[in-house]
Each structure stands twice: as C-alpha cells, then as structure tokens.
C-alpha cells in the first residue's frame, strides 16, 4: 500500500514500505481481527540507507614490493561494486 504524498524511505523484509513522521519511522500494518490499519513504529536506531539501490564506487589500495630495490609503494584502484537484486524464491 502506498500512502499518497508520503516519501518512501525503504522497505522491510515483508516488502512493506517504510515512512517517516514526527515520532519516527514506521510501516503500515493491518490487523485482520479488527479490520483496521495502524502504524507500527521501527526501533529508534533504524536509519534509511541512502544508497540502497545504487552501485558503489570504492577505492581499494594495497602495498606492492619492488623485488630489485626492496621498496614498497602504494597502488590504488577504483572498483565498482554492483547492486545485488533480491531473488524471489518460491
């Protein structure tokens, strides 16, 4: 369910959207016994991941030793880490 005019901050394990109000982050849950929807708040420590669905660029460095001069130098490379999509298992 998508609330109109609300920004979505992510999704939980069940696939429900996460929203934010003045009290904190919450998901909209449904109670089948009372047939009502209510806000279920997440823990205060939960924070949204800004770059959850994007590729990451990381700088990886290592020390390389020259065999002749026996000196070390630092070699750095930029590496792109691709975003992994979740697979639906049935």
Task: Give a quick precis of the structure.
By secondary structure, the protein is an all-beta fold. Helices cover 0% and strands 46% of the residues. It has no helices and six strands.
Account of the 3D structure:
- The chain has strands at about 10, 15-20, 25-30, 35-40, 55-65, 70-80.
- The chain is mainly β and about 90 residues long.
- The strands form 2 sheets. A 4-stranded antiparallel sheet has the order 1-2-3-4, with no helix packed on it. A two-stranded antiparallel ribbon has the order 5-6.
- A hairpin with a 5-residue loop joins strand 1 and strand 2 (about 15-20).
Q: What's the main sheet like?
A: 4 strands, antiparallel
Task: Indicate the mean pLDDT.
Answer: 78
Residue fraction in strands? over 45%
Please list the strands of the largest sheet in the order they lie side by side.
1-2-3-4
Q: Compute the separation of the termini in Å.
A: 22 Å
Beta strand count: 6
Low-pLDDT runs of 5+ residues are none
Rg estimate, integer Å: 22 Å
Give the overall shape, derived from the CA principal axes: rod-shaped
Summing up helix and strand content along with how strands pair, one would put the structural category as mainly beta
Q: Could you estimate the helical fraction of the residues in percent?
A: under 10%
- The arrangement of helices and strands along the chain is EEEEEE
């Amino acid at each position: 369910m998508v609330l109109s005019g609300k920004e979505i901050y992510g999704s939980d394990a069940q696939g429900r959207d996460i929203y934010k109000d003045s009290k904190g982050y919450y998901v909209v849950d449904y109670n089948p016994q009372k047939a009502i929807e209510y806000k279920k708040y997440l823990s205060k420590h939960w924070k949204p991941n800004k770059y959850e669905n994007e590729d990451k660029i990381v700088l990886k460095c290592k020390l390389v030793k020259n065999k002749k001069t026996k000196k070390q130098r630092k070699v750095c490379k930029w590496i792109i880490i691709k975003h992994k999509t979740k697979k639906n298992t049935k």
